[in-house]
Amino acid sequence: MKSAFVKFLAIIALVTVAAPAHAQFNLKKAVSGASKAVQAATLTDQQMAAYVKESVDWMDEHNPVLPEDDPYTQRLRRLTEGITDADGIPLNFKVYNVIDVNAFACPDGSVRVFSALMDIMNDDELLGVIGHEIGHVLKHHSKNAFRTQLLTGAMKDAVASTSSKAAALTDSQLGTLGEALINAKYSQKQEAEADDCGYDFLVKNGKNPWGIVMSFEKLESLEGGAGAKASAVDKMFSSHPETQKRIQNLTKRCNKDGYTRPAATEESK
């Protein structure tokens, strides 16, 4: 039986303390706060990489990762054979055995595909989703979204450090960062950039870019259906605006480049 996706959200208690009217401005405290903000804003690539790795490791530990001999994993290995890096970023692929219809790619090249998504998509469509998500990595959208989350609220104080070593984070904070990786919200411009970049990525790796178009069409056909999968599809669409326009743009590009649209087939595990 598939396990529901484990989601941990950081609960931040906001306590407002009324200061006496005669309280003087604490210059030392203000300078200290400003110093932390500067340190966080200048977060190094080394620190970023450490936080991403820790977050991905946390998600892999708290979700049902299917083993190498599982049919889902074997299918993903077959589809991604030979796809080893994205502009020098090493890629690694795993399947989460969960009911959510989703997939995501992390700044470090970790790509996680949900089994429920694999259930509803054929091979070309699935590669289309993967290509699009890797497009966000190549355009640094996922890295910037992750960085923004690190510099938000209570997290900012945790990551502010005078050294290059990443500060230790709690389970709650790691859960929040994992949530940010999975459900990152991108602008319409970023989504269009990921479409085009994912298209180029698939072509570079010898895959048919029609898969991106077909994946959008599949999700669109399922929108508004019944059950848990439908609600997950609706949620996925909320972060992928202007779907029809994007389908039209990618269709024109596929036709212009002379790619033949694959026949619609059922997925085979």
Number of strands: 5
What portion of the residues fall into strands of 2 or more residues? 5-15%
How many helical stretches?
12
Mean pLDDT: 79
- The strands making up the biggest β-sheet line up spatially as 3-5-4
The shape is globular
Q: How much is the radius of gyration in Å?
A: 21 Å
Order of helices and strands: HHHEEEEEHHHHHHHHH
How many strands, what sense, and barrel or not for the largest sheet? 3 strands, mixed
Structural category is mainly alpha
Helix proportion range: 40-55%
Description:
- The two termini are about 15 Å apart.
- The chain has about 270 residues and is mainly α.
- The protein has helices at about 25-40, 45-60, 70-80, 115-120, 125-140, 140-150, 155-160, 170-180, 190-205, 210-220, 230-240, 245-255; strands spanning about 85, 90, 90-95, 105, 110-115.
- The protein has a three-stranded mixed sheet. The protein has a two-stranded antiparallel sheet with strand order 1-2.
- The model is unreliable at about 5-40 (pLDDT under 50).
SSE map:
Blueprint: H1 27-41, H2 45-61, H3 71-79, E1 85-86, E2 89-90, E3 92-96, E4 103-105, E5 110-114, H4 115-120, H5 123-138, H6 141-150, H7 154-159, H8 171-182, H9 188-204, H10 210-222, H11 228-238, H12 243-256
Parallel strand pairs: 3-5
Antiparallel strand pairs: 1-2, 4-5
Helix pairs in contact: 2-8, 5-9, 5-10, 6-8, 10-12
Summed up:
This protein is mainly α and about 270 residues long. The chain is about 55% helix and about 5% strand. The strands form two sheets. A three-stranded mixed β-sheet has the order 3-5-4. A two-stranded antiparallel ribbon has the order 1-2.
